[in-house]
Amino acid sequence: MKFPTRHPNLNSLWSALLLEELWRLGVEHVCIAPGSRSAPLTLAAAVHPHLQQHVHFDERGLAFFALGLAKSSGRPVAVITTSGTAVPNLYPAIVEARQSGVPLVIITADRPPELIDCGANQAIEQQDIFSGYPGATIRLPTPSLDIPANWLLTSIDQAYARSCRQGLPLHINCMFREPLYPYKSDEDYSLYLAETTRWTESDAAHTEYELHGDGGLNASPVPWSEFMSGKGLVVVGRLRTSDDVEAVLALAQRLGWPVLADIQSQLHGHPAVIPHCDLLLSSRSGRALMCQADRVFQIGGHLISKRLDRFLGSHRWQHYYMLGREIRRMDTGHSQTYRMVGNIGRICHQLAQLHSASDAPLLPDWLEAFRMLGQKVSTVVRHQQVEELSESWIGTHLSALLPEEASLFIGNSLPIRLMDMFSAHRSYGVYTNRGASGIDGLVATAAGCCVATKKPLVLLVGDISFLHDLNSLQLVRQLDVPMLIVLLNNDGGGIFNLLPLAKGDSAIKHQAIDYFTTPHGLDARYAAAMFGIEYRCPESTAAFKEAVELSLQSPGCTLLEVKTAPGEAACDISQIITRVEEL
């Protein structure tokens, strides 16, 4: 595709160059919040033949929607906003993107220098507004014929390599003077673009960076033979691709060690995985088994289970290996002894090939003891729950109700803990926002995941998280694939019922209600009606199962509200832990 040389004005030309180069670098989706100062960028995105545009009125929800698109597609997604307070509304999603290793391209329009810090309308200091969370920041001057187009293109390429190619956000701040809109016939910029002929007549980025940080091992890790000869555990956190999942399973089989898998690993419920690892650590027998290990190999991202994370940080390991995609530290106990950074699938495949299965220690009795205890815990979880619709019942059974092609997005706070603790069924496409683990933007992120995958998706979310992101129901009402929102409405922040504050005397309990759980007494049916979304409120497990099945057969969004008593989930968890402690 030959880049056009005629444009309405210089603002339009620079915006077109910027969007074109981002597309050549791999951006396919651009999310746009309406605004005047960003008009040159918006109009350039609107006419680009290959970019898919998404428009939303709420910048915070829009940024989380972009996060979901990027998370599930594996490709950077661009976000365009105007100047002023629109910009800091993007901050929460940028923090989550940075913490979870998801690339976003944040393009913010800005006033020119002469309108900053002088009382001009909608003008704030936007330079470095996101602090150190972007991997790179470009501070573009106002477009000028005195600045070569090659400079603009190479600046984008270099910043993109430093950020998005590393799984980090990129911030591009664009200063524009008026005119912001086309006001006359196009001008010919052939002379200005003359030095970019090679670029204008091709589809390639101006400067291509070849990075080797996402490869495998350059050589066999020296201590690997010694490491695999002991009694160890494999702990699997967040994995992103099916290749990673298969490679991790193959390596675990070679090692012959028990595998403990987080709900984000895509391995939860796999026959080779010990179920309910969080509850195992509540059992005296489980702790005794785990303490026999003298080494651990942790693979992937963040862990949900605080018990497991604390155990990993407090146990005295001879060797603690960690394999992840990002060099960013994930070592809350500050006890890791060896770090491998790179492509998880490739590295696991290489490690599995270093030794045959016969080289690994044979620990059948120890492994069988783990499996037997895991089965006992599963029995406790099943028998403790009556066939009544509750939060713990949903946490146990939801995965089993989903068709294999459906994805599951699990909200933070109580829902993610219920799923990680109780679910023992295989989930194939699990998404979370566990970088910063905020309760904001969950509806929007799930909507972005659904759009990118083009497959049915179920969002399990709590009521406070849902209320936090109510504006994003505008995004889900536009979906043409099935999306089901399972809303756990326990009338407030149910997670606080699990904390010591809720177990104090009467005065403390009243403070917990007034200042932490914050009861709201709201009904979601009216929110569904406002946005034209199908609504159901099942009161039995049979009605819930039927609603899930029907909702995933029809395009569009359905809101399934499950009303439960405050504190009910905390009581269920406490009773199950009490039973497990006796094992």
From TrEMBL:
Pathway: Quinol/quinone metabolism; 1,4-dihydroxy-2-naphthoate biosynthesis; 1,4-dihydroxy-2-naphthoate from chorismate: step 2/7; Quinol/quinone metabolism; menaquinone biosynthesis
Residue ranges annotated for the Thiamine pyrophosphate enzyme TPP-binding domain, each copy included: 422-562
Cofactor mode of binding and number, as noted: Binds 1 thiamine pyrophosphate per subunit.
Catalytic activity: isochorismate + 2-oxoglutarate + H(+) = 5-enolpyruvoyl-6-hydroxy-2-succinyl-cyclohex-3-ene-1-carboxylate + CO2
Domain Thiamine pyrophosphate enzyme N-terminal TPP-binding: 16-126
Required cofactor names: thiamine diphosphate; Mg(2+); Mn(2+)
HAMAP family reported in the protein's UniProt record: MenD
Oligomer status and interactors: Homodimer.
The protein's name in its UniProt record: 2-succinyl-5-enolpyruvyl-6-hydroxy-3-cyclohexene-1-carboxylate synthase
Species for this entry: Endozoicomonas montiporae
Top-level taxonomy: Bacteria, Pseudomonadati, Pseudomonadota, Gammaproteobacteria, Oceanospirillales
